Amino acid sequence: DAKTTQPPSMDCAEGRAANLPCNHSTISGNEYVYWYRQIHSQGPQYIIHGLKNNETNEMASLIITEDRKSSTLILPHATLRDTAVYYCIVRVWGYSTLTFGKGTMLLVSP
Amino acid sequence: EAGVTQFPSHSVIEKGQTVTLRCDPISGHDNLYWYRRVMGKEIKFLLHFVKESKQDESGMPNNRFLAERTGGTYSTLKVQPAELEDSGVYFCASSQGGRGYTFGSGTRLTVV
User: Fold this and answer.
1) DSSP, res A7
2) Is B72 helix (H, G, I), strand (E, B) or coil?
3) pLDDT tens digits for B43-52?
4) Between chain A and chain B, how many beta carbons pairs sit less than 8 Å apart?
5) Mapping DSSP to helix (H, G, I), strand (E, B) and coil, where does residue B71 land?
6) A-chain residues within 8 Å CB-CB of B31?
7) For A1-45, what is each residue's pLDDT tens digit?
8) C-alpha B13: how far from its chain's center?
9) Closest residue of B to A44, CA-based?
10) What per-residue confidence (pLDDT) applies to A90?
11) CA A70, CA A92: separation in Å to the nearest integer?
């Protein structure tokens, strides 16, 4: 699986949009971009994934650059409960495993 | 639907003892994974079942760890004998197809 690079930490004010970047410059054509998060003391939680088109669901939006070398996860209206470590992972669609890096610690403050 | 359930949530055992962790995946999910996070480290893959078969066990640290999934339903992960470095949080996840995994809340294992 391709390697990803994320900033170690970010801050966001409650109610504002949180934009979490991820670089994956060695991504292959058949690799998807997945985002997970881990809230303290819980298991990782799936957020969203995409291949090359932008994606949106009830939790977040995923913007992937045209060259697919980077992406941004957007939480449109961050709440205190969004404070977590966010992981950007690239992997082939199917049954391959997840390779977790260090992720980005997002702190949402009042 | 019920999520992935792990038992126990916490376990404290002495070095040299045996511990068995259990994972009940989401019903109908063929894929079951074990991951763990040891203190200060990243979450690491341990192994992957497809139904009752071990698809990939490349992440198992050594032969003190034994995972089973009889009948392709729940899975157990046994550590025998436990060592201090086995302390950490053990996560189980399940999936169907290539969709996102659903993780359990984990079992926090402390070996003293």
Assistant:
1) -
2) helix
3) 999 999 999 9
4) 50
5) helix
6) 95
7) 568 999 999 999 999 999 999 999 999 988 999 999 999 889 999
8) 17
9) B103
10) 92
11) 16
